[in-house]
UniProtKB/TrEMBL annotation:
InterPro entries: PDCD5-like, PDCD5-like_sf. Residues 1-44 are annotated as: Disordered. This is Double-stranded DNA-binding family protein. It comes from the Eukaryota. It comes from Rhynchospora pubera. One of its GO terms (molecular function) is DNA binding. Keywords: DNA-binding. PANTHER family: PROGRAMMED CELL DEATH PROTEIN 5. Residues 26-35 have a biased composition (Low complexity). GO terms for cellular component: cytosol; nucleus. Gene3D superfamilies: PDCD5-like. Belongs to the PDCD5 family. SUPFAM superfamilies: Double-stranded DNA-binding domain.
Length: 128
């Protein structure tokens, strides 16, 4: 949630991109390990920020959603983190607030499911 922390992540990412362009496809195992470590560290930092922002019940609900729809849970996490970084969240997000946020996202991204039933005509039927 701190701006210096975010700036450090951006600088590290820029260094990684510059190193990739300089080296091209000839990455050695050390560079790949460093990239994996950076990804793991960024994910740990993300989870730590979420534990600070979400209440215990909200984290449990989000974890259950992540089991079923990981992409949707990731999107909700992104929305919450962005709101926290902009200062729109002043207190911990309760389960009720998370539910209302999920409902808002569902109405924005609702997909209409359409089922069509095609009936087979029997060979013995004579409708002609």
């Amino acid at each position: 949630m701190d701006d210096p922390e975010l700036e450090a992540i951006r600088q590290r990412r820029m260094q990684e991109l510059m190193a990739q362009r300089g080296m091209g496809p000839q990455q050695n195992a050390g560079q790949q390990q460093a990239q994996e470590d950076a990804k793991r560290e960024a994910e740990e930092r993300r989870q730590m920020m979420l534990t600070q922002i979400l209440s215990i019940e909200a984290r449990e609900r989000l974890a259950r959603i992540a089991l079923v729809k990981p992409d949707k849970a990731r999107g909700v996490e992104d929305v919450i983190l962005r709101a926290a970084q902009m200062g729109q969240i002043s207190e911990k997000v309760s389960e009720e607030k998370l539910i209302s946020l999920l409902e808002q996202i569902n109405t924005q991204t609702s997909k209409q499911t359409k089922v069509t039933i095609q009936r087979r005509r029997s060979v013995l039927e004579d409708d002609d």
